[in-house]
């Protein structure tokens, strides 16, 4: 359960809604893909046509939607700036929304704020270890996962899954995944402490000194990132699909909403986030009198 459900939902089992935790369309078999060059290539390709119009390193602090023109206030180079627009698309992560890092004037409608409060914001730590090409490693290069081995650990909730990247990336690298309370604990450790814990787990799984010290190591810390404050959304106790619908609802016909948390069918996925952005963009264009269908 920890290697499948808790990992996919980026939280602990006891935090999930028993009724709604897996709500949404069922994905087709083998429909998962890895962007070998990294997610940055996806973002760069989408941004290329409008790159000169993007204000980088700009931190939004408030959105005033009380007038016909929406005012977005942000900090850039230690100075406060404001931009006014007929249409605004809000794509703030669920963690940022729950933290109240961006103020809304007037406050959000009760239905939308309650949806934000009810939906969960998960914790998902990825720890990458890599070795040289000629490293002598104890696992089969064709094995994607080490589910049988991970069950030998005393505390299987510490690491939900170890993923072998060789079958897809042809590199000697392992991805360790931890979610929920353990992910938050691990985020508070130093890189050295995390590496020591992973190597101790490998010793238990494969035998003492069977796994050599890695030559590369990197860990994600989404909870500590002020611009995400968590990984992605999940259906928490007390939440329902109606909350995702409420989060997606446009406000006053000029402020539209997108993001994975607002996608009822494909929440917690990159394609769900992208699809919600297309839908919000289509709404905004039609509001401006542009008849377009985004496919």
Describe this entry's structure for a reader:
This protein has 295 residues and is of the alpha+beta class. Helices cover 31% and strands 19% of the residues. The strands form 4 sheets. Strands 3-2-1-5 form a 4-stranded mixed sheet, with no helix packed on it.
Ranges with pLDDT <50 over ≥5 residues? none
Give the N-terminus to C-terminus distance in angstroms.
36 Å
Shape: elongated
Classify the helix fraction into a percent range: 25-40%
Radius of gyration: 21 Å
Number of strands: 12
Structural class: alpha+beta
What order do the SSEs take from the amino end to the carboxyl end, as H and E? HHEEEEHEHEEHEHEHHEEHEH
Average residue pLDDT? 90
Largest sheet: 4 strands, mixed
Task: Give the neighbour order of strands across the main sheet.
Answer: 3-2-1-5
How many H/I helices?
Answer: 10
What is the percentage of strand-forming residues? 15-25%
What's the short story on this structure?
With 295 residues, this protein is of the alpha+beta class. It is built from 10 helices and 12 strands.
């Amino acid at each position: 359960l920890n290697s499948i459900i808790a990992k996919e939902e980026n939280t602990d089992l006891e935090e999930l809604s028993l009724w709604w935790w897996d709500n949404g369309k069922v994905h087709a078999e083998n429909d998962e893909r890895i962007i070998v060059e990294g997610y940055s290539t996806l973002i760069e390709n989408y941004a290329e046509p409008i790159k000169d119009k993007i204000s980088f390193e700009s931190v939004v602090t408030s959105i005033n939607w009380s007038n016909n023109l929406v005012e977005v206030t942000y900090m850039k180079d230690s100075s406060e700036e404001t931009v006014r627009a007929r249409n605004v698309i809000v794509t703030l992560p669920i963690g940022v929304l729950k933290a109240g890092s961006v103020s809304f004037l007037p406050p959000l409608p009760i239905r939308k704020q309650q949806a934000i409060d009810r939906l969960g914001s998960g914790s998902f730590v990825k720890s990458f270890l890599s070795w040289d090409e000629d490293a002598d490693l104890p696992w089969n290069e064709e094995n994607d996962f080490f589910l049988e081995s991970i069950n030998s650990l005393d505390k299987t909730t510490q690491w939900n899954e170890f993923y072998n990247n060789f079958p897809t990336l042809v590199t000697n690298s392992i991805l360790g995944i931890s979610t929920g309370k353990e992910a938050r604990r691990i985020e508070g450790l130093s890189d050295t402490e995390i590496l020591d814990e992973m190597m101790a787990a490998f010793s238990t799984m494969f035998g003492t000194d069977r796994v050599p010290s890695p030559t590369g190591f990197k860990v994600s810390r989404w909870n500590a990132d002020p611009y995400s404050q968590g990984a992605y959304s999940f259906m928490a106790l007390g939440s329902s699909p109606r909350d995702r619908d409420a989060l997606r609802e446009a406000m006053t016909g000029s402020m539209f909403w997108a993001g994975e948390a607002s996608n009822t069918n494909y929440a917690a996925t990159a394609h769900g986030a992208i699809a919600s952005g297309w839908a919000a963009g289509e709404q905004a264009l039609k509001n401006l009198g542009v008849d377009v269908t985004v496919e």
